[in-house]
Design goal:
184 residues, OB fold (Dihydrolipoamide Acetyltransferase, E2P), 52% strand, 3 domains
């Protein structure tokens, strides 16, 4: 596939290693030729890498199987996911999942990417709903100001929220940058 046709979520074979594209950006500097900057995550090592490709370069695309699964729980070493159709369970190591577990409360439905029969990684939705587990008390009359405070979500994710948020509220959180999007 041509570099200009790439999009996030595709499986690629980069330097003989199966990877998943996490970002694609087309750049056209004023006095240089156009190029495509890609960000990808190696599946086996979990390393995130970047590479610059010419707009005419080709990349070997790998067909990845996407299966809807339910996140059950995480332990010290891995996260466990269950296929809703046949109830098969799959474990993915914490190294492969990285910060993904911070956005997954139990019983969340996600898409797991497979290459053959091997589970590779998890595709998160653009935003998730999490409950505030701990934060300083709400500030009265803080709705009209830009005051913020730190809060810890039920999964351990730490984010910055407006001062009027209280413990127990459900919030919508971006999985792209971990930012507060609003109340759920």
């Amino acid at each position: 596939m041509k570099a200009t046709d790439l999009r996030p979520g595709l499986g690629i074979n980069m330097d003989g290693k199966i990877s998943v594209l996490t970002g694609v950006e087309h750049r056209t500097p004023g006095n240089l030729r156009a190029f495509v900057q890609i960000k990808y995550k190696e599946v086996l090592t979990g390393k995130s890498l970047e590479r610059r490709l010419g707009s005419g370069d080709t990349v070997d695309v790998v067909d990845l199987d996407r299966r809807p699964m339910e996140f059950l729980f995480a332990d010290m070493n891995s996260g466990t996911f269950m296929d809703s159709e046949n109830y098969e369970q799959v474990e993915l190591s914490r190294e492969m999942l990285g910060d993904t577990l911070l956005y997954l409360p139990p019983n969340t439905h996600v898409t797991v990417l497979f290459y053959g029969e091997k589970a590779l990684t998890v595709e998160l939705p653009p935003a998730v709903e999490l409950t505030v587990a701990d934060c300083p008390p709400a500030v009265k009359n803080a709705t009209a100001t830009n005051q913020t405070k730190d809060a810890e979500m039920e999964t351990g994710l730490k984010i910055t929220v407006p001062a009027f948020i209280t413990i127990g509220e459900k919030l919508k959180i971006s999985t792209v940058d971990g930012s507060y999007l609003g109340r759920a």
